[in-house]
Amino acid sequence: MSTNNNINPFENYSGSMNLSRPGYLLLLFGFLSVIGLLVVKLGIIGIILVFALLFGSVFLYYLFCYPIIGFYTAIALNFMLLGIGRYIKGLPLGFGIDGILVLTYIALFMNKFKKKIDWTPAKKDITFLCIIWFAYSLFEIINPEARSIQAWISGRGIAFYPLLFVPLTLMFIDSSKKLQMFFYIWGIFSLLGTLKGIMQMTMGVDFAEQEWLNEGSYKTHILFGKLRVFSFYSDAGQFGANQGYTGVVFLIYAMSQSKILSKLFFIFVGLLGIYGMVISGTRGALAVPIVGFMTYFILSKNVKVIITGVAFLAIVFIFFKYTTIAQGNAQVRRMRTAFDPNDASLQVRLDNQKILKNYLSSRPFGGGIGHGGTKAQKYLPNAFLSNVATDSWYVLIWVEEGIVGLLLHLGILFYVMIKASLIVMFKIKDPVLKYKMSALIAGMAGIMVASYGNAVLGQMPTALLIYATMAIILNTDVFEKENEQSANLLNHSKH
């Protein structure tokens, strides 16, 4: 007979009794001493540091237990980091996304340490396209026109983030429940972004935002005495386009929800997203809902929906192009200029593109990543490309990676859009899944067009959302398989 059955329960002891051992007591004493020293020496900063260490320890524990937490954390940081940078100076917050993505991969390896990781979900065409794009961008380091490795590092997100994030999306977002969580996190931070934007519009900017404006951003964010709302995003252009993006995706996605509270949440976030786009005063952001909803109408393959949608968009176009209704509203007045082909700002951009065309005609690989636009003045203040504004995302790619890089980039984007659209239109049978995928495709289409006017696509927070979208809309098989399994279980239970 096993002696384990004769254990006296009164002789058992809990794990906390380990503290009676000398080694554990010394460890606890040392830990408390360090905390005490931090608080005494650093005061309030020490207290903050202690809480940060405690939170970090708990976070790392759960991250290594559930690596998908790293994916969701990256989405959250994607929204917050640039805004935090206005309040905390001197820290390399830009590497925050890099850090959490690398940590997530380490957690994934450690979590599956005793057994081989199944990389099959990540073995998709979009992953290989991201590898090709990264390889080309890596080649840009030895581009003869490139002058600064620091500049390349500053622009690393162009290829480094899709290389890391697309496989993680394929590995983790493999069920409707996980996809729903992705949308909830996106929605919550977009909602916070709109609320912060409303605060800026009604109550004014705070000390850190005012300092940011004073450093030079007032030139583009205070026009005719009116603030272009930027929330905690990098600028008003990114805020407006991303909010329009959220508006399109969430209003369409809401149609896939059966629960009334979920449906109301997505509709509410979507409508506030459109409102956030309007108060940003970003003209180019108008392309997001116009192109996005038009894309959805086509994907629906419903003639009545297409006719109704086109009629609605025609009314919107006529409102801005041929009327002066609501001209007294600063945001409406500014957006109306987006429909003016003679707008002074547009002419300046076209003139800059002519200048760049002459310069790049003999440089098929561009001037090097991080070398284009005024942002490059930090590393190359006197370089030609550093003193010509790029504005457009595609112009930026053209300047930094040449016509070869631009064609490769556009090729990848259109491949994803066309293949995903064909899947939705002719392959997916489940109407709920169609709504979900159509929402993401429509949003991406809107961002792609809006990125001609502003450098939207590759900047936070739009960047990671787009990379996740590219992975999800080309991975519909896993959701269809899930639906089939649910249907089979339901049929089996009936019998």
Describe the structure.
The model is unreliable at 1-16 (pLDDT under 50). The protein starts with 21 loop residues before the first helix and ends with a helix. Helix 3 (68-84) runs parallel beside helix 8, helix 4 runs parallel beside helix 7 (157-172) and helix 17 packs across helix 18 (462-473). It is mainly α and 495 residues long. The protein has a two-stranded antiparallel ribbon with strand order 1-2. The chain contains 19 helices and 2 strands. It has helices spanning 22-42, 44-65, 68-84, 96-111, 125-139, 149-154, 157-172, 176-203, 207-221, 236-253, 260-279, 287-300, 303-322, 330-336, 344-360, 393-426, 431-450, 462-473, 476-494; strands at 222-223, 226-227. The protein is globular.
Strand arrangement within the widest β-sheet reads 1-2
The SS-based structural class is mainly alpha
Helix content: 55-70%
Mean pLDDT across all amino acids: 84
The count of DSSP E runs of length 2 or more, i.e. the number of strands, is: 2
Order of helices and strands: HHHHHHHHHEEHHHHHHHHHH
Low-confidence stretches: 1-16
Query: How many alpha or pi helices?
Result: 19
**How much β-strand is present in the residues?**
under 5%
- Biggest sheet, in brief? 2 strands, antiparallel
* First-last Cα distance: 46 Å
